[in-house]
Amino acid sequence: MSFRRLMLSAAGAMMIASTVASTSAQAVTYYTFSTGDFTPGSNSVLTSQNGVNFTLTAQNGNFSLQTVGGVTGVGVAVGSVQGEIDGNEAIGVAPSIPLYLTSFTVAFLYPNGVYGDNGNESAFIETSPGNGITLQTTGATTATVTSGSVVNLSPGNNGPAGGGEWLVSGLGVLTNGVFFPSWQLR
Prior knowledge:
Layout: E1 5-7, E2 19-23, E3 28-32, E4 44-49, E5 52-59, E6 63-68, E7 71-76, E8 90-95, E9 99-106, E10 122-128, E11 131-137, E12 143-145, E13 149-154, E14 165-169, E15 173-174, E16 177-182
């Protein structure tokens, strides 16, 4: 019996620089995405690793890279902030087979007042239609997540190390991952 697991790292509000894992009873195969897998200016990339195809899409814009506080991320090149995901933008990761999302990272996600943000920023990853995981900042190094656990990798502040990067782990199924922003006050 075999099954597959996906670890997706999406840093940048939101960047997808990621790791995807396929698991069988005896071995784990990791699939890795980095900023180099996203062609700035394009809105779709097809890549294949170890027999699994992945379609990476920038919805309502094109891929754009950004570096803040030493953290480089992939976002969308339109909206209020180039190289982030905001408004009706999204970055999608669609594997050719169902996979389990086990972890991901998100960067450029800040609490109220940082870089002029109004309210604590949050991000949503849709794991299946209508279902997903919400990550919301509560401070420069603290956040909440609706599933799994969260660890701060780079503080969410205005300083030189302020990449606002978060690791979320311990998660469930991903059939067609799409990262959506959710800039809401809660």
